[in-house]
Give the backbone structure.
Amino acid sequence: MKLNEIADNPLASRSRMRVGRGIGSGKGKTCGRGVKGQKARTGVAIKGFEGGQMPLHRRLPKRGFWNPFSIRYNEVNLGRVQAAVDAGKLDAAAPVTIEALIGAGVCAKLRDGVKILGKGALAAKLVFEVAAASKSAVAAIEGAGGSIVLLKQETAAPLAGS
């Protein structure tokens, strides 16, 4: 390949259509907007408008509720932690924290902390510093000779004026 042979894909960047430039252009007079009315004018945004009929998004029932004070944990099974230790991604001597789990690729993002669940077997003696843990996970960790420290969860302050 030579520098003088480099070219963009055909029709990759077209020049804009110049409208309102006579009958011969094919986009003269009304410029492809039809005839009169609201949609022929500039600045029209009628998304979801159905000609006066009740729009679909208002006909359908509302459902569900999102609690702004809910706590979303990264849920990690013990088998996944053991696999990371076996692969050498997680140091068995250091405490297992959210930062260590993200570094090992077990968790993707921080969220509100980590909850350890009891699925899978744990052979390594680990010290966990996490936000929550299930009863079966605590039993398995202590059975393997490890320990678990539950971190204090910071509660969100209520909104002003509520």
